[in-house]
UniProtKB/TrEMBL annotation:
The family this protein is said to belong to: Belongs to the FMO family.
Record-given protein name: Flavin-containing monooxygenase
EC number: 1.-.-.-
GO molecular function terms noted in the UniProt entry: flavin adenine dinucleotide binding; indole-3-pyruvate monooxygenase activity; N,N-dimethylaniline monooxygenase activity; NADP binding
Reactions that this protein is recorded to catalyse: indole-3-pyruvate + NADPH + O2 + H(+) = (indol-3-yl)acetate + CO2 + NADP(+) + H2O
NADP listed as a keyword: yes
Enzyme class: oxidoreductase
Keywords: Auxin biosynthesis, FAD, Flavoprotein, Monooxygenase, NADP, Oxidoreductase, Pyruvate
Coiled coil regions in record: none
Organism of this sequence: Vitis vinifera
GO biological process: auxin biosynthetic process
Pathway listed: Plant hormone metabolism; auxin biosynthesis
Cofactor(s) in the UniProt record: FAD
Amino acid sequence: MALSMVYDEKVQEKPSIQMVSKSQYAINRSALNLSEAVAKSEEEGGGCRWLMQFSLLAVSSIDLNEVSLFGNCPSALICCLMDYLKEVEGKRVHDPLGRKMSKSERRILVPGPVIVGAGPSGLAVAACLKERGISSLILERENCIASLWNLKTYDRLHLHLPKEHCELPLMPFPPDFPRYPTKHQFLNYLEAYAKRFDIRPFFNKTVVSAEFDPRSRLWQVKTRGFKKEEEIVYQCQWLIVATGENAEEVVPEIQGMNEFAGPIIHTSSYKSGDSYRGKRVLVVGCGNSGMEVCLDLCNHNAFPSLAVRDSVHVLPQEMLGRSTFGLSMWLVKWFPVRLVDQFLLLVSRMMLGDTARLGLNRPKLGPLQLKSLSGKTPVLDVGTLAKIKTGNIKVCRGIKQLSCHTAEFVDGRVENFDAIILATGYKSNVTSWLKEGNMFSEKDGLPRKPFPNGWKGECGLYAVGFTKRGLLGASLDARRIAEELSVHSSWPFQHVRHDNHDL
């Protein structure tokens, strides 16, 4: 029986379908007639069956549950609505299903949101959407989830904050996890999270550009696979940027870097101090990573030095039997931030001493004020200061220049080193591929609107994980985005499942 005839019978049988307007019915009927015409022109009628089903679903307000007669329609076989429309315009009459299209021209319509990035932020928003019955598609450039944690972190890494402040929405950490989970425990948690919510990212998909097309009102998300010719354009109405603040390494330009004879690596390539035993290592940068790498080097019998250019707040990881972070969050509910900062600095001085005497000058603004205004995170000491006090870790000023085996510092000191590790952090790379100039700043790749308003842009563009407030901020963004998109809960595609192997 012709699909259009089946549809006519459905309209007569289903009261809910009878509510479709006459104009909508005409559109649906025309689409089905066109699909049947395409089917007759194809030698392989089976290949067009999915296109005909999609024609019905794409233009109809009928819920998928009401057209179960036609079976599930995997997104892998949804043959791209935009190419279908081009066919209607007569642009692809001789190749209606795109079988002759080159890889670089392949286009796929995604019924729900496209999420760029399968880190904790991407997983969080996908789970929140799934909870509301909204399917999404995640594009990830690496071959695993949480690639920063999986591929670019050192072995001894633990969460610096208690687990209750780092869990993703809808799923707490296992109760048997320690207060500060290890890197591997956190990764196991993320794997379990993805499994629980059936989150299956499309791996090895590097987004090279994303641009909103005002004519179709769709985002055009262009990806590249392992082979450069394997290019696919995903088209979607909603684009969620979840690449976060740590997408690319920050590598400073230091005079003489090319002349230095020893290895120079970023902390993203550092695993442990085992290969640096007995070596003089200069660690550049005094954030949490730089301080912890110095401690790890020291524990592996290396001779680390810490190059400190800027002022920094160093706080104990715990105060008065509570985590410093948790205590701070509780205090700011009752007292002004400036007063809480004074309390934190007073307790820190009592517990750690005067860090300025160790070469670690404190900023003029308090730790919470500085975090709020600049996003600069205070260092939570996990034992590094004790090694500095005993002389096992040297503190140096900023680097002026490097030569074959030496580093000259801005105070005139010259020291010999065997290796240099850059603990200079990461940055956003959004502006390198997102062709949009309103939501994200060209300067730092972060949302222009300050927290908590940076999660929503225009034309269906959203951001998660750019709050400079860690996993707590990402979770808050994820919930807001899911709530916003849930108003589209009547989408006919919301229950469509996709299979990674089909694309």
